[in-house]
Design brief:
homopentamer; alpha/beta; 9-stranded mixed β-sheet; 6 helices; 39% helix; globular
């Protein structure tokens, strides 16, 4: 199989949609925000991503087991959301980034917006931006979002944006200030407010922080189970000593 | 060779059978239950699974050495049982899961039922379910089996179910409460009772717990030998220092 | 190259010979016994096995360097002996096992007999057997060799026998009680006596124990040299730090 | 994908240009010097290098995320600069070296000049040279640059030069004395002065040391972020225990 | 690319030459002796060996960077010398050995003579031999060189000789007693004297020990630089934590 495969499970009947990407990272901000969007906008599953290098875990939501890296669509909002509930292993970052961009181009996506977290610099009320073109940098600034002038960014967010910049594909990254805790729902709330400002997306957010805390609870539970499973595997492997070379 | 290969050794003359999968996991419940079914229903070997990444071990049963991951059939019960006596290495989980589902589809299997264990939550008398469709969730509930609404599940069980859910293939997982001991025959008994309820499978189970304890004894013995062999390999490798790069 | 290659260096002019396999394992019984057969029956080299994953060592016998995994034939006794002087690395066990069986079938071998060791259970005077078919189990029992009813067996011995059982190829394994020392010539003597009983092979064995001790001495010497070389490599690698990634 | 790929993003309209290569190494001299050239000569991006084995990081410069290994051109100066802001992983050194040379030959590059650092031997005011031909050695000496007569050189610099020497391709390496600190802008200044002497390149360098310190600051900041991201990944991976095999 | 590639850089106009192989090993005897031959017989470069698994280092000799594993020829002496200045990584030993033998056969080499070291057994004045055929064993003995009757030999020397023995290709190994220091020029001197006796090669050796000490000095210096570079890489990698997966 290819290093990362994107498998579609439903018709993709959108016209130049925006693709929002929410992968884990600081405070798991991206995943929490993307999950909130999927729930709130009643988005439908349209595909998933798999790789032999992804952790062998399934998330259970609403009684049904799901691959942890999934894609949803909303025809009403002409929107695609791509999220992962588990951290992308380092050696999958580059192949996943190019797989996402190649797929986005094939699907005639008009713009990619990544959501994520960044270490708190002030009072945790700000969202910073990066963009793949100078025109988009100006657009962000015009929306009151400070852009990062010099620095480094890592993971799928960073590599995907660099690919977009190299190929001239329009893409921005919105990074909410987040605390280095495992999850930070406040960061998710911040980044969704910024997303509304940038896209004009109409989404009721009066319950945003409360809901984000709900999403966080489910993810904490899920990650605890995953950790327990990891320890179980590890222990079993150790007991069989050299047999699991 | 492919990452995981399913090799058939006998004619597969069944008509849309149910495939029951019993792989190790918490309490080795799946393997114990599947072994009980194979013995009790006098099922015949029909194939096995191999991979260069599986541990190089053979189980000896009734004087004959066997690959540890095997497939059995019962024409009378229109049933296939797939079991493994050894924990599937992490990097084989995804390829094995898709190999099983691809094979099940090719063989026109009507439904996949995975048996496994879950950490005890109450008095260890319950079996929980997960299903690949909402219709099957209702069917489980109608049979008095609580389904897991939110959470995570790992290993072949989890990944296979997520694949089934994604492709719309009917599959359920029955998870008996089990103690985190190496093996838990009580969990195996619980899961088989649930299996009977769900499938209507007729199987005499008055001796179930006693037999499960027998199965457990053999597996403990086998695993002890495997561990000793693992240590032997490890020690020999260490003595030859850098020669086994 | 293939994971394991069997390279022939002489014509194979035998007619449905028995193939005796003596690989290292508990007490190195298999290797010592196989080496004794090759010497005593004046067998000729007919090939060798290589793999990029085998340790890069050559054994020196009678002034000539040899690959450590070799095949010999005796036209007179219609016999093939396959031996290795070094432990097969874990990740080569499965490919070597299938390579041996595929080769045996191609060469029209009539039966495979593996020689090995098993942890002493009584007074170290017994040889236990495993067989790939119930008919061979009976044959072993008829020759006074107890068979192992339930358990596990590892390494090439075990995996090869499971392959033979799956494909219905006649194969037995003779396992002498051996002490967990590095080598146990007494185990080798026991297993050869059992081999004579099972095959009717005529071989003078009055000097067996004495000769086995000789073989053991050479192997101890050879392994000491291999260990020293391993340490030398390891030290040189460490001194060059990160350069040997 | 190939182990290392060079991807062009703009027309390459130069005529037998000189290719200057500045990869990290002692004091990050090569990267600092190459970055200074790109800025000062207002060079344009012409491509980048990617590999699944490169660290998944993007550098942000002037608000735009960029792949850390990039290629620039200056039509005015008939010059190409190839730089990397991150250390090339050991297992990518050989494939990157041959990829660069193959690409240089395809693009009809007239000469490759690598910039780097070398441990301070005297008062840190000297630049040493290595060359791929004896004629170039003489040329270096004629320009007052001492050549290294005997020794070893490592990384892409070394392997690329050895490839050039083997194929008879003109290439030199200029190595400024540098302190084993993380970055040494003084070394970068030294090597650029030497580059001017060797190539006759006209470049205003009155602000060189001051500017180099600026470049250094940005790189320190970027590397700090990369390190923090690395720790974040590592921690998350450890928490999920055996799931990230 | 193939695991190991031999790349020729000049015409190979020899007629059934002897190939002398000097790879590192105990006391680096092989490399020192081979380097002495190349210098003393004014041999010309004819090719080099590369592999992605070789350490990314270039040796600098006489101002020019060179691949560390190289091949030289002398038309006058009808001789080829193959040497490496760095220890061959374990996983490259088998592919390099077969690459050398395949190349030697293609080039119609008449005999391969490997030079190396062996742990001092007496007063360090002896050279021991191994040979690929019994005729060559007798020839060695006739030249006063004791052969090793039983034992083990490792690395390219050992595996190459075993390959030669298996294929019936004439090859000998001359192993001088050497001290387990990093380098032992005295061992190199001993092995060259033996080489003269065995081949009748005319080579002035009055300055042999002095020259060998010179070669040793250069190699110590080169290896020190390689070690420093290795540490530099390691440190940089550690600082970037999980980013260099």
């Amino acid at each position: 199989m290819a290093p990362v495969e994107i498998i579609e499970t439903a018709a993709f009947d959108l016209n130049k949609p925006i693709l929002i990407e929410g992968l884990p990272g600081l405070g798991l901000v991206g995943t929490i925000a993307a999950t909130y969007l999927v729930d709130k906008l009643k988005m439908e599953p349209v595909g998933y991503m798999v790789s032999e290098k992804f952790p062998p875990i399934a998330a259970i939501h609403n009684n049904i087991p799901l691959h942890p890296a999934r894609i949803y669509k909303s025809k009403k909002h002409n929107l695609v959301v791509l999220l992962s509930e588990f951290i992308i292993p380092l050696n999958s970052v580059y192949p996943l980034s190019t797989a996402i961009l190649d797929w986005a181009i094939k699907k005639k996506v008009s713009k990619i917006i990544s959501l994520g977290g960044i270490v708190v610099r002030g009072e945790q009320d700000e969202v910073f931006g990066i963009a793949s073109t100078q025109a988009l940098v100006k657009e962000l600034n015009a929306n009151g979002i400070k852009t990062i002038k010099e620095g480094a960014t890592t993971g799928v967010n960073g590599v995907l944006l660099a690919e977009c910049a190299s190929r001239g594909f329009p893409a921005i990254s919105l990074l909410a200030e987040a605390k280095p805790n495992y999850m930070d729902p406040r960061g998710a709330a911040l980044v969704i407010e910024a997303l509304k400002r940038v896209t004009g997306l109409e989404i009721e957010t009066s319950d945003l922080l409360k809901e984000s805390v709900e999403v966080e609870k489910k993810m904490v539970d899920m990650l605890d189970k995953a950790k327990a499973a990891g320890r179980h595997y590890q222990k079993a492997g150790e007991e069989l000593g050299g047999m699991y070379g």
